[in-house]
Amino acid sequence: MTENVLTVTSLKAYYRMAYFGVDREVRAVDDVTLSVRKNEVYGIAGESSSGKTTLIKTFASAIRPPLKIVGGSMTYHFENGDIDPYAAPKAKVDALRWSHLSYIMQGSMSLLNPVRRIRRTFEDFAFRPMGLPSSEFWGRVESHLQRLDLSPNVLSAYPHQLSGGMRQRVTIALATVCQPEFVIADEPTTALDVVVQKDVLAMIRDVQRQMGSSVVFVTHDMSVHANIADRIGIMYAGRLVEEGPTRTLLAAPRHPYTAHLVASLPRIGDTTPKVALEGRPPNLAEPPTGCRFHPRCPLAIEKCTTDVPPLEPVGLDHRSACWRSAEVRPLTRIGHQELEVAG
Amino acid sequence: MLAVVRDLIRYNKEFTIGAVLVAIIVGFSCLSFFSPVDPTLVYLVPPERPPSTEYWFGTNSRGQDLFWQATFAIRNTLAFGLLVAVLSRIISLTVGLVAGYIGGWVDRVLMSINDVVVALPIFPILVLVYFVLRADLTTLKLAIVMACFGWPFDARLIRSIAVGLRHREFTHHAVFAGMSARKIMFEEHLPYVMPIVLSTAMANMIWSIGLSVTLAVLGFTDLNIPSIGTMLYWANNHSAMVVGTWWWIAVPVVLVVVTFVGLYLLAVSLNEYIDPRSRLRRMGGAALVSATSTLVAEGGAAPVPTLGADVRGEPEGRP
User: Fold this and answer.
1) Higher pLDDT residue, A46 or B116?
2) Is B302 touching A (CB cutoff 8 A)?
3) Per the domain annotation, does B34 fall within a domain?
4) Neighbours of A209 (CB within 10 A)
5) What percent of chain B is predicted at pLDDT more than 90?
6) Domain of B111: which CATH number?
7) Using CA atoms, how far apart are residues A55 and A32, in angstroms rounded to an integer?
8) Which of A82, A182, B76, B240 could be B235's S-S partner, Cβ–Cβ 3.0 to 4.6 Å?
9) Which of the residues B167, B176, B179, B306 would you substitute to probe the A interface, choosing the one with the greatest number of A C-beta atoms within 10 Å?
């Protein structure tokens, strides 16, 4: 068993708002327990408004009101010791940023300041955490860019002079230049076409392997997960419903939601019509009782409407939160070849 | 930067004219450094001579050569306008960026002060200041007082931009990276508002010069310092129009009008440069071509000129 970099225990993060005297609570992350190991890519999947982005915002300790941590704990195990970002002093958490923990935010194409040259952005973000003398610092930056197949010339360009794909790669280079132990990436490939997407994914994978760091990767696109993730966690309505190694999860999902999600993957030669799930994701301000998936679940029984299923092991390294997990069958058979890609 | 100026001169007639006029005025004021006479001394030359080859701008009733007098006058006036513009820009940038970025009650307090200052009647206050300080009212003090009234319009403008920048992704990114609020405001957001500040600075110079001339014409200033305003004051004092020494009035008026027109044209053309739509229309395809040809990045570079930013220019120095 390898070591964990991040341990999260029954984490609850709610948006708390008061409108016209009525308090509303949006339970975007509810009772999530997971751990991210050293040197792995952990993918978080789920449909829109399932709480993916909120979850990783809490990971990055980049939360701001109305989002609040309501319960649970979260601990990073970095080389220089354990730290809980919500208990540690602010200065200590700030020191982690970029050098140990970096975050590629959503919309990474617009993360670079349009009126500053890339060089200045690198200087702003990485110079202080890296703590190197000027010449050495730029040497490191340039060699890092070269490793990512970017010409050091991009340093003297403005963001608008680069294409979307290059900007995205520059952003990833910026996030990884300090060799952080933990990288959080929020949909880094959205808005890219598949060819550039493939390059960017390969680049993230390469960087992760070279640095031996851990990457938490969020996207709703299951095919991206199949390509890059070592393990996948499936979010539904603010809860982690299933977690397992990519191959196992794709070939033998043990939660009905995952089964449908996997079946939605387009595959070459597949002519059977896709089975669509009825309904929409629930309103997180008033989530359904019991299992949050039960109104849409084809396997739902009486118990599902009242009792919340715990996330329990169903196989090697594989956990599922379903009362009838033993009865879940994959809706489509994933071929051998496709799993090769996934590996 | 130089390339931008070159393009502006090539494609923008207003900018060219404005730049030439301002250059003439600045060049003229620089002549004061080579002046053979002290502008504060009187009765050095025969009085009330009309413009001639000997005295290009004529002489006044106080026995001063108006040519050299005017060089000092325009220099002091320009310097005053520049000083007020710089000082008020410091206030408006600070207030605007802080109010826009920090927001909340800071924003409300600063903008309330801002609105109060907008509503204050400036001219009576300046006259009052003169009567309180009298001989103590040096150019610097007057500039500080005027800067205290010249910032609120631009502070609002800058705030409105900063409010938008605060919610842009790159700001969130910078906050996450642990950049301090001061650094974000003055390093990340400042370059964004700079072109606008540059344009409003010219308008502010026109405003402050106009006000200082008014004060001086009425005698509410140190009359021994040669400036456009004091020249007019002395001309009135010696009833130049009645006596017929029209050149005494014409010289400062022409100088200040040329200054105003030049600064106004610069401000307007810069405004047009800042607005990407009008800039593109004006420059047409030529700017696009030159922008593409000087792209630094190789592979996948997109030929899209974007707002505000200097598209070309020299690479910046390293830290």
Assistant:
1) B116
2) yes
3) yes
4) 11
5) 43
6) 1.10.3720.10
7) 9
8) B240
9) B176
Instruction: State whether B177 and A153 contact (CB < 8 Å).
Output: no
> Would you give the distance in Å from CA A330 to the centre of its chain?
24
Does B295 contact A at CB distance below 8 Å? yes
B60 in any annotated domain? yes
C-alpha pair distances (Å), A322 with each of A28, A45, A293, B187, B214: 20, 17, 9, 51, 83
Please report which confidence band the pLDDT of residue A226 belongs to, taking 50, 70 and 90 as the band edges. confident
Q: How far apart are CA A166 and CA A186, in angstroms?
A: 17
Amino acid residing at A231: R
Residue at B289 is within a domain: no
Residue in the block written with tokens 């010696």: B238
Contact B316 A120 (CB under 8 A): yes
Containing structural domain, residue B202 = 2-274
Which whole number is the average pLDDT over B308-318? 41
Please provide the size of chain A in residues.
343
Structure tokens at B172: 């969130």
| One-character DSSP codes across B251-284 | HHHHHHHHHHHHHHHHHHHHHHHHSHHHHHHHHH
Q: Is 70 exceeded by the pLDDT of residue B44? A: yes
pTM above 0.80, yes or no: no
Distance between CA atoms of residues B299 and A107, nearest Å: 22
Q: Which two tokens stand for residue A26?
A: 């949006």
Query: What residue of A is the nearest CA neighbor of B296?
Result: A157
Furthest CA-CA distance within chain B: 74
Q: Which of residues 187-246 of B touch A (CB under 8 A)?
A: 187-188, 191-192
pLDDT of residue B37: 85
Q: Is B140 exposed, middle or buried (0-12, 13-18, 19+ CB in 10 A)?
A: exposed
Residue B298: inside a domain, yes or no? no
d(CA B98, CA B189): 11
Nearest to A109 by CA among A166, A182, A26, A183: A166
Helices (H), A8-133: 52-59, 90-96, 118-130
Rg (C-alpha) for chain B, rounded Å, is 23
- Write the DSSP symbol of residue A97: B
Backbone angles phi, psi at A65, to 5 degrees: -55, 150
- Return d(Cα B230, Cα B76) in angstroms, integer: 11
Domain ranges of chain A: 238-343
Straight-line distance from the first to the last Cα atom of chain A, in angstroms, rounded to the nearest whole number: 19
B245-292 pLDDT, tens per residue?
889 999 999 999 999 999 999 888 887 777 666 665 655 544 444 444
Contact across the interface for B316 and A119, Cβ inside 8 Å = yes
**B170 contact A CB<8A:** yes
CB contact under 8 Å between A94 and B178, yes or no, is: yes
How many distinct structural domains can be found in chain B? 1
